[in-house]
Amino acid sequence: MSAIEAIVLGIVQGLTEFLPISSSGHVIFVPALAGWPDPGAAFSAVIQLGTMAAVLVYFRLDLWRILIAFLKSFAAERPLWRSSDADARSGWFIVLGTIPIGIVGLVFKDQIENNVRTIGLVATVMIIFSFVLMAADLKGSQKRDINQLTLRDGIIIGLFQALALIPGVSRSGSTISGGLFLGLNREAATRYSFLLSVPAVVLSGLFELRKVGSGDGASVGALPTIIATVLAFITGYLAIAFLLKFVRTHNFGVFVIYRIAVGVLMLVLLAGGAVS
Prior knowledge:
Helix content: over 70%
Number of strands: 0
Number of domains: 1
Strand content: under 5%
Shape: globular
């Protein structure tokens, strides 16, 4: 792998992991468009550590506060998820909201990894789910904050997160849509999406590390892997900061348009034989 490939793939991984435009779609599209060989599952697993680190570092204070409140809730007399502490409730909702994607991911692991990662399907899903994001953005009341989340909200958003196992959906796009449909404002839906991503991204990255040394994909040296991982961390961190600031004054229309444009482009190129 050349330095240019490592730079591009690291940036793509970092940006698309957190923007609602589908990281799995771009990881499939970019090498196909550039004519590069598949770098392999081991490479992808390692550079995902960069995006894992980005979300942990960016939300370190929030996560620490939530963790402490979550642990203290075990000593409470009322049901754990009905704690009077909003941080404790968030902790429980994050845990419970991660269960659906964990169960679905394990049950359909082989199908997800081998049977649905085609350019035609991913491009189609990107287009279809663009309208889901648009509907959520337009129809949501956007009157609620994270502190007003309920157990029902946490479970529903967790179910939306499980949809992201379909390549082309986007994990952040699906959870943000779920939050918007439930009445969260854009910033609250985005922030909760990132917080909810922590267990899913961390556990997924650790699970995928089993593929390191599997020998699949192209031969990738240590230096390109390090370059891509560092860039995934930097761009992932910047993507989180950018999106949280962006949604304070903008809607998700630009991401809807981008998703549709990329999906249509890939379908046209596929029909014309430019990519396969």
